[in-house]
Amino acid sequence: xxxxxxxxxxxxxxxxxxxxxEWYAEFFEHIRGLAGVRSAQNFMFGPNQIDxxxxxxxxxxxxxxxxxxxxxxxxxxxGVKTSKEVLRLPDCVDQTTIMPTFYETISERQSAPNAPxxxxxxxxxxxxxxxxxxxxxxxxxxxxxxERLGDMLSIPAQISGQLHQVSKHxxxxxxxxxxxxxxxxxxxxxxxxxxxxxxxxxxxAAARARDPSIRADGRLASMKTRDFLFEPYVAPEAAKPAS
Length: 243
Hints:
Elements: E1 4-10, H1 17-32, E2 37-45, E3 58-64, H2 67-78, E4 99-105, E5 110-111, E6 124-131, H3 137-153, E7 158-166, E8 178-184, H4 187-193, H5 201-210, E9 224-232
Antiparallel strand pairs: 1-3, 1-4, 2-3, 2-9, 4-7, 5-7, 6-8, 6-9, 7-8
């Protein structure tokens, strides 16, 4: 039995946004109702970003008591993507960008030292999509939690942080072997203090000078991250369920 998360990053097909939001509401409620799903929240891409490269517009986050049975339930309804098969989704969902990924929890959720008392439904999200060399993956979780997580939680407005590793149970080939999930109360404060991504040799060298944990011989040396800010999802009026 492995606790974890199911994270779905997805986009609507252009000019089919209304149909997408209607389907998305149904999809979210269906996954939330599955046995083994402990909690569920959905988010949308924030207006200000750390990484200027594009990412999907919407993110659904499901916390799981056990990854495998939830994955099996999702696969039964939506299928498994292969070289010959796509997921069973309506034509308003962009199949070329969707990223449904199951992760297993490898660290306790840590609270920030001065975490603000922000209601869960008002909390923002920062996801750090992490790539690591194969030779570093076995020790990466311990290194990240010991040398990185606490530093990131010291940033003002941070609430909590947790690291997850990709599960072997999937419905589509995963891209990132690790993801760190941070909750915060103010995306602008996070944006102003978060380390800028290293995109060339000068910025990488500068980052290593500031942060010993990612120096060339450090345990996080091969880590590459894509860091994105999300805000609570607000459904368009037409997609909201009737009261």
